[in-house]
Amino acid sequence: MTAALPDMAIIDSTVASLRAFGGPLGITALVASLALCLASWIPGASAWRRRALWAAAAVLLLGEGLLVWFHVRLYELAAVVDPSTGTVTGHVAVPVWVESEKLFVWALVLAVMMCAARRHAPELASVGSVLLLLLVAGAVLAGRPFTDPLPDFLAQYTGYLRGMAVGGQAAAQAFQGMEGSRLYFYDTWYMWVHPPLLFLSYGAFTMSFAAAVQAAMQRRSAFEETAYRWARFGYLPLTAGMLLGFPWAILAWTGESWWWSGKVNMSIMMWLLYTAYLHLRLHLRKRGMWRWVLALAFLSFFALVLTYVTTYLVPGAHSVA
Amino acid sequence: MEELETPRVAPRTASRRGWDFALLVLAVALLGGLGIQSLAGTLYSWWATRTVESWATSPAFAFYIQVMNAIAAPMVIALAIVMGLCIPKRLFSRGALAAASGIMVLFGLGSWAATGSPTTGLAVYLLGAAGVQVSVVVMTIAGASSLRFLAEGRVAKVGSALLHLGFLVFGYVVVALQKDAWMLPVFWVGFVLAIGGSALTFYAGGVTRALSGGR
User: Fold this and answer.
1) What is the pLDDT of residue B13?
2) Is A285 on the interface with B (CB under 8 A)?
3) Cβ neighbours of A200 in B, within 8 Å
4) Residues whose CB falls within 8 Å of the CB of residue A248, separated by 6 or more in sequence, listed in order
5) I need a surface site. Which of A116, A216, A225, A314 has the fewest CB within 10 A?
6) Does an H or E element contain A259, and which?
7) Could you read off the pLDDT of A283-296 as tens digits, one per residue?
């Protein structure tokens, strides 16, 4: 095997370091989110809400910092070598929002938005804290970005290393797969723009949902206005991210039938529903219209959750099921 | 919920708003219809991958794509027509609007008949709608007072016109340019128009304040 490729033991020790620091950090994030939830809902504890929110956001930021360190270290190690020439074609730059890290990023974006919110901040925090707890719990217990990091990438890269060690046809095939993933998935600029835009929109739509719940519970139009403001803020990155997915799909999935695949279907449905919501809201002043507007706001967020879940349930392009 | 008082409006304005509302309900219904189709397609995919062996490479998959296209096509065309109706209503009276829309639909149908390709027909219709939208943008920026918009304010008007133009351009890219060398350049034009137009529409107040030096 060429000297430019890393020893598996170095990758294993990097993963072990992440586990050692990240395992407790994940539990801390879960505890901090639970504390925020309690501070938001227990009468008399509201004085602690703001501090608990900042603490939860700080722990999540710390966790993200640890993930960034892990990914930078991986980038330094994960060279791709062409077996026919022996030259390094590049290093794999795995972004911090793939595989097991998605829910963690969503939770971080939501926490930052909750900290930044000025309009109806306490009311948004009460519903938002429950949603944040669900996201952090999902990230730590199901996603496990610190204890079981990047299972697909590490499996592919270690498979590539094994193929390169064997040499011959096995090395050529392993290189072809790894180099394809590097060029069209990990290292393409679309990967560094498309998902972050969508996670930004996911965070904003979660805030919008929290405000919509308050509008339905308290029957105050001011909360509906807040829900709309967050929704329009989320709609911009959602639309930009989805539009950018189109040329990326044409580039990366040439010859594949991706247009009607499950995840793409659900993404389109979510965008259509949010578009319908923003359009219908133009006539909010019509008598009784607020019920329809709020119903669409709830339906749109439900579609967002379904879109996320579809990635893991329905096989097809853009899916890991 | 504090019910907002319905403002009293002149009959003609009320009629126009009724027309706007009818178009809006139609657009929302079509968006919802496409959404339901997307959900149904996802559920079918989920079921098929579990019950049909190698479904993604089987003839059943090709049939699924064919059926999905056949169901979506009328709704996409209807949505494009509604968008077309929404666009020239800002330039013409309702009678002229119906005539202009009818002419554009006829052009689309004629192209379909001449080439035998519904895709070409839709592409021609989208080009026509985009052409009308370009004139709306130009007239709005020039400050034509006759334009009728639901949203108030010059910035919101320009934004609304630009974003609709952007989506028409994107629609044209999807329908006609997927395998063309011009795909990316035209896509970027549509992207900038759609996102820039949306931002102007959503944040018209802030942009107006910024343009007027914070006053």
Assistant:
1) 53
2) yes
3) none
4) A188, A190, A191, A194
5) A116
6) none
7) 888 888 889 999 99
Q: Provide the angle, in degrees to the nearest 10, between the axes of the packed helices B183-202 and A221-252.
A: 170
Residues of B with CB under 8 A from a CB of A: 1-7, 21, 24, 27-28, 31-32, 34-36, 38-39, 41-42, 45-46, 49, 56, 61, 64-65, 68-69, 150-151, 170, 173-174, 178, 183-184, 187, 190-191, 194-195, 198-199, 202
Cα–Cα distance list, A216 to A29, A110, A297 (Å): 30, 21, 11
Q: B54 versus A130: which is more confidently predicted?
A: A130
CA atoms of B113 and A11, how far apart (whole Å): 62
Give per-residue pLDDT as tens, B8-61. Answer: 444 445 555 677 788 888 988 998 899 899 889 989 988 998 898 888 788 888
CB count in 10 Å sphere of residue A23: 14
> Residue A48 has what DSSP assignment?
G
The pLDDT, as a whole number, for residue B80 is 72
How far, in Å, CA of A33 to CA of A136, rounded?
Answer: 7
Q: Which DSSP symbol is given to B88?
A: G
Which among B64, B58, B62, B74 is positioned nearest to B43, based on CA atoms? B64
Does the CB of A220 have a partner CB in chain B at under 8 Å? yes
Are the beta carbons of B35 and A239 separated by less than 8 Å? no
Chain B residues close to A280, C-beta within 8 Å: 24, 28
Residue from the list A215, A262, A283 with its beta carbon closest to the beta carbon of B21: A283
How close are the terminal C-alpha atoms of chain B, in Å? 33
pLDDT at residue B89 greater than cutoff 60: no
- State residue B149's pLDDT score: 56
What spatial distance separates the first Cα and last Cα of chain A, rounded to whole Å?
33
Chain B neighbours among A 4-63 (CB < 8 Å)?
none
* Contact state of A221 with B202 under an 8 Å Cβ cutoff: no
**CB distance A201 to A235 below 8 Å:** yes
Task: Please name the member of A236, A269, A316 whose beta carbon is closest to the beta carbon of B39.
Answer: A269
Widest distance between CA atoms in chain B: 66
Where helices occur in B52-117 by DSSP H, the ranges are 59-86, 94-115
Which one, of A5, A18, A254, A232, lies nearest residue A146 by Cα? A18
- Cβ-contact B84, B133 below 8 angstroms: no
Instruction: State whether B45 and A261 contact (CB < 8 Å).
Output: yes
Distance from CA of B46 to the nearest CA of A (A): 5
Q: CB–CB of A262/A288 below 8 Å?
A: no
**Chain-centroid distance, C-alpha A277:** 23
- Domain locations along chain A: 1-187, 198-321
Give yes or no for residue A255 having a pLDDT over 60.
yes
d(CA B36, CA B62): 21
> Residue B163: which H helix or E strand, with range?
helix B154-176
- pLDDT at res. B35: 87
